[in-house]
Amino acid sequence: MTETSVWQPVIDRLDRLRAAGQRVDFWLRDDDAVEPTPALDRLVELTERFSVPTTLAVIPAHTNGELSHYLACRDDISIAVHGWAHQNHASPAEKRQELGGHRPREIVLDELSRGCSRLRALHPSSFVPLLVPPWNRINANLLGGLPEIGFMALSVFGPERKPARNAEDAKASSLSAFPRLRLINTHVDVMDWRGTRGCRDHREIIRDIVRRLDEMNLDDEAIGILTHHLVHDESVWEFLSRLFDLTAAHPACRWRKVGDLIAR
After folding, report:
1. 3-state secondary structure (DSSP) of residue 243
2. What domains does the chain contain, in order, with CATH numbers?
3. Are 225 and 29 in contact (CB under 8 A)?
4. pLDDT in tens, 153-192
5. What InterPro entries does its record include (predicted)?
6. 165: burial class by Cβ within 10 Å (0-12, 13-18, 19+)?
7. Which CA distances in Å does 152 have to 43, 60, 178, 218, 235?
8. What does the alpha-carbon distance between residue 211 and residue 96 come to, in Å, rounded to a whole number?
9. pTM for the full model?
């Protein structure tokens, strides 16, 4: 199977949108940034080459002025709050969580408030009031407190309109009870976390993109691509390069800053 045929389903969907006078929004969220690294250099160079805005989910407890200095003149990078220390507080029998129900609510919200203030101070021009929970998990009991400490939006993984399964393992699938908090999720993960811990098969990632294109509300939703620059293998970089090349110039596509998605 040739590379063109692998990508043909995406090309076909986008061409149909163009023919119908429609357009789809994409956004890129990259997790676990702390400091300048060669991997971050590579991500920044790649996204700048194709003019793709990037949202870096930064871990507040572990970052400092080096990252803020490195990003100071990069207008297309937004900074979101990636929990506090990306520390697991769940038991070995549970899925990993920093923002679960394992500690008092006040303590968790205080950490998030400090994280918000710290990143706002370090990145005054690029900070966005977006919370990205480590491991994409947050206890539903915390949601109501997020606007009070400065957050306007939340980003986890999965479709925004998916019904929540239960309160304890809330994926923040519906925020109808919290109108002051906007949900802007990621939907396509390039990493094979349960297998090779490298790039997923490109055909599988493309199927996820096509599925999202078929299911989403074009007027109010976007396709969120999730990456982790620190652990990318060559196959991830190849995939992203091809994705950006295909979409950045296509008239039916628009790569958006997350701040624009929060505001609309």
Report:
1. helix
2. 3-263 (3.20.20.370)
3. yes
4. 999 999 987 544 544 444 444 555 566 899 999 999 999 9
5. CE4_u4-like, Glyco_hydro/deAcase_b/a-brl
6. exposed
7. 26, 18, 10, 22, 35
8. 27
9. 0.93
